[in-house]
Amino acid sequence: MFESLQSKLSEAFKILRGKGKITEKNIQDAVKQVKMSLLEADVNYKVVKELTDRISQRAIGEKVIQNISPDQQFIKIVNDELLKLFGETASLDLHSRPAVILIVGLQGSGKTTSAAKLALWLKKKNGRNPLLVADDVHRPAAIDQLEALGKSVDIPVFYGDRKDPYKIARESLDFAVKKGCDVVIVDTAGRLQIDEEMMKEAEEIAKVVKPDEVLMVLDSMAGQDVVNAAVEFDKRLSVTGFIITKLDGDARGGIALSTKYVTGKPIKFSSTGEKLDQFDLFYPDRIVSRILGMGDIVSLVEKVQQGLDKKKMEEMEKRLKKAQFTFDDFLDQIHQIKKMGSLSSILEMIPGAQNVKDLKIDDEQVKHVEAIINSMTKKERSNPEIINFSRKERIAKGSGRPLSEVNKLMKNYEDMKKMLKKFNKIDKLGKFPFQMK
Amino acid sequence: MIKLGIFDIFKKGLEKTKNGFLGKALSILKGGNLDSEKIEEIRELLLLSDVGISTSDYIIERVKESKEKDAIEALKKVLLELLGPDESITFANEGLTIYTLVGVNGSGKTTTAGKLAFRFKKTGKRVVLGAGDTFRAAAIDQLKEWGKRVGVPVISHQWGADAGAVVYDTVTHAISEGLDVALIDTAGRLHTKDNLMRELEKIHKIIKKLKPDQPQEVLLVLDSTIGQNAIQQAKIFGQSTGVTGIVLTKFDGTAKGGMIFSIKRELNIPVKLIGIGEGLEDLKDFKATEFVDELLE
């Protein structure tokens, strides 16, 4: 039992061993994987190509940290680069009084709902006094929709004559001043970026209201082409940021990445539910792991990066090879593991280990083992041979564990020493030669 | 009736995107033999059209097997084969025909309902619209506006009312008046929301109870600009409502709607209608040859 577990563990950890530097060759598979994953997330094909090429060029030559494969390290690098690309969480720049926010986008992306949600957010989180302006005179009942939404959250809605979008826009500013509103949110009709007439309309509205912010609404389900729309909207209307909607679905939202990459403008808000308060600032880390879809590997690398004291690991390896293994080492190793989070959670993240049966390590048991070792004297830890029956009794009492458990640990320790002698004849040795049961 | 073919409209759109940032790639395909470079061009074209990785791979394998000498001809054949013969919407053998429109938020259900009503009315059918979207603010007003434009009655309740009750009233009204078609709009819902999907199932059960051979068609409305999530949507909506066809909307834009290949291949759901503009007449029968031509344009 012990041997089979041991061999499985070492197999699993072999995958994790460092392999020098990142080269074009040793990350080939990971590059491919990243590309596929990004494409499946609907990141634009050209953006995927350019982005992965750039990142892999930058990654080549980087030293691979111990216990991590080049592939895994590359994925972590991609993750970090994407986070860098998205930048800090960006808010709004509303200096005019009243400040004006223009909401634009394709049909059905969620402009009207987003306008209402943004108004509520500004009211609740920023103590603002917003005015909603229903300036979509094209879609039937779009004005009624905003009116109803405004009413439901007690925010005024202006719609003027319901006919002339420029007049509505112009009058809304005076109305805001009269009503004491300090921010005006103008909802506009959905339009295709190739619809010249409608794009001109949007430009004219922008000229009238002189917006502080022009926010384009993007549906998180968007496919390859929508980034072209974003580019065109930006060109015509100088977009200052994006709102990404319907993130409560299971689309991975690659459009956020494509858009940020191509336009350089930040994603400012995300909308995550049917309720009007399900709306918040955009947090890049969440979308990156959603788009990349490799959160497991990334967090494994992070844990190893944070947790592993490389020097200690090397020392340990030396001692293991000499079979000079004491309870001090045992405790040390447990601490290393604990720094990385629970042992079973670490094992779950290792690609090969998921398929290995019987690989159940009880975190509770690790605690017990730790308690027992902690109840030993220093002398006992470094010379386990001296532990006789009365010492065992004392250790059991001190740790609050039954004597049988202390015996079991001692037995395991003996087994381990024997195993180590055997193992030292084998070159490729795994790093966690412990049986916890 | 057809003023401008989707072909023309699409061309018009493309001309504009050609100057766009990412839009120029698609004209590189000009026939020729199938070498690895050509295959990469095809892959790029497919992926940029939202065909998705696995279906793109499948298509490329089939193109490689093809005996056709010209790469584009080979690709065209494979794409057409994948889509299969054109299928249009059907009618009940006798009595009332009921259609439901389902889909995620913002896909274009209400607009499609209006256009469909117009289409049926034009061919002399007696139509009623059911305002089954009681959730979205003013969705009822929106449908009523369409009803007014088309000249078709709309059965509706209050905002927030039970959608099942609206459906019940719409169908019983259609039966008692001896109407030909009942068109039922439903609220947009993300397929990930179990409670909302159950509500949709309930609506369909109500229809079945009132008229066991109906609904004739459950039409899933998909926005052309959508990406790979479309397949998941078609799958889940299909499971809970038995989708019989797809309405591909907003095809007058520059998106290619390539996800319909995966949906046909994996779920065998055909596209039946295609929306190409905001006018009443801008809903056409789907024609695979035109669609593929535009993809390769």
Protein architecture, described:
The complex is a heterodimer of chains A (437) and B (297). By secondary structure, chain A is of the alpha/beta class. Chain A folds into 3 domains: 3-86, Up-down Bundle (Four Helix Bundle (Hemerythrin (Met), subunit A)); 99-294, P-loop containing nucleotide triphosphate hydrolases (Rossmann fold, 3-Layer(aba) Sandwich); 306-428, Signal recognition particle, SRP54 subunit, M-domain (434 Repressor (Amino-terminal Domain), Orthogonal Bundle). Chain A has helices spanning 2-14, 28-40, 45-59, 70-86, 111-126, 142-152, 165-179, 196-209, 226-237, 254-263, 284-292, 295-307, 310-322, 327-339, 343-349, 363-374, 378-382, 389-399, 403-423, and strands spanning 99-105, 130-135, 157-158, 183-188, 213-219, 241-245, 267-271, 279-281. Chain A has an 8-stranded mixed sheet, with helices on both faces. The termini of chain A are close together. With 297 residues, chain B is α/β, with parallel strands linked by helices. Chain B folds into 2 domains: 6-83, SRP54, nucleotide-binding domain (Four Helix Bundle (Hemerythrin (Met), subunit A)), CATH 1.20.120; 97-296, Rossmann fold (3-Layer(aba) Sandwich). Helices cover 47% and strands 13% of the residues of chain B. In chain B, strands 3-2-4-1-5-6-7-8 form an 8-stranded mixed sheet, with helices on both faces.
